[in-house]
Amino acid sequence: MKKGAIELKYGETQEVLADDIFRSVYRLTARPPLLPPSEDDIVRKRIARPIGSLPLRELVHPADSVAVPVSDITRYSATERFLTPLLEETDAAGIPRKNVTVFVARGTHRALSDEELRAVVGPEISSGIRVAQSNPDGETLRLGVTTRGTPVRISRPLMEHNRIVLTGTITFHYFAGFGGGRKALVPGCAARETASATHSRIFRTDGPGKHPLARPGVLAGNPVHEDILEAVAMASPTFLFNTLLTPQKKIFDAVAGHWQKAHEEACTRYAKVYRVSLPKRYPLVIASAGGFPKDINFIQSHKALDNAFPTTEEGGVIILLAECRDGFGSPDFLPWFRFEDPVEMEVALRANYEIYGQTAHATFSKAKSCRVVLVSSLQPEDVERMGMIPASSLGDAVRKAEEMLGEVPSSLVIPDAGFVLPDVSGNAVHLPPGHPLRSP
After folding, report:
1. pTM score of the predicted model
2. What is the per-residue pLDDT for 426?
3. What is the pLDDT of residue 434?
4. Domains detected in the chain
5. Interior CA angle at 334 toward 331 and 337, to 5°?
């Protein structure tokens, strides 16, 4: 690779950006965290010394049945690397493997193939445990209603177990604050109506627009997070294990223990690494979602677009690299772009909320506020329908950006926009009063 070139992940391949075509380039990356000498050792150490809880082997008993929700193919969590030491805890408590069920927490995503199940679960899939996939439209058990009015329904097959061990990985989430923790259960193993209701808390109740605290990196006061917390508490999870991963999928830390306390500690540790200060915004931002599975579909890739958006000057251009091999990620997504503007879309969404209508609204709002050039495998006409500009390659995208801006200006490159949360100095991107992205 040419000296000074920047390699950007795209699916399971790379696009190479020659930095000598720009006047100047600023790379927004996190300082790599210190890796432990042994991933297995750090996993076992965290499991043995849990936060706010006794070790798992002291919380369960031989007669118990244990449900272990794990991430699906869209959220790599290193399940295949931590599942063995986690199951050794239930082994030590005398629980037969046949009484342990790993539930792939699909949320409202598609079902996994047999090959994908083997990849997600890893070698323990043949160890005597049962493996099942949650189904948002399957049989559920009603646990109650949150104070915000969310009906809490969780997978009945999962709730037939008397112990629940949550797993997952910590990431920034564009409106729930952070991934991991409680999300393994809600929306991971919840009914569609429950998932939809918790997601709808993103909107303000005192007027139009998004709630100002329903944003990445924020838990306190976040109405989506708080509604999910209340819902999950009704199921009384026994334990939690979450990984903290680098963009290269290395485990640099992990947490175990109380399902809420350990998760909050993990979010703090993660933010210290991947929340990165940025002194100014740029007219041209080039962002990679981070490759597979961060860019498995557009719905997942949007999270990288959300992270890149605040770094762009008013009237600027974002180039997003996101392969989207699985298309949009839901057939419910693209039909929402029948509306002419985000405000009209929000009115319809509030009247008839759909989870992926929310992602469509967030996407459309950004596409109306700046120019987004998308390098993907999606059909060009579908990209245009979302209000974006399709490009066949990174080089093609840069040429189109140059045409729009009249030059190739100083640029910001975010190689792992699906991981890094920019903390931009100064005010937020200017938006007119009443715009759906404008905070009060």
Report:
1. 0.92
2. 53
3. 41
4. 6-30+279-424 (3.90.226.30), 39-272 (3.40.50.11440)
5. 150
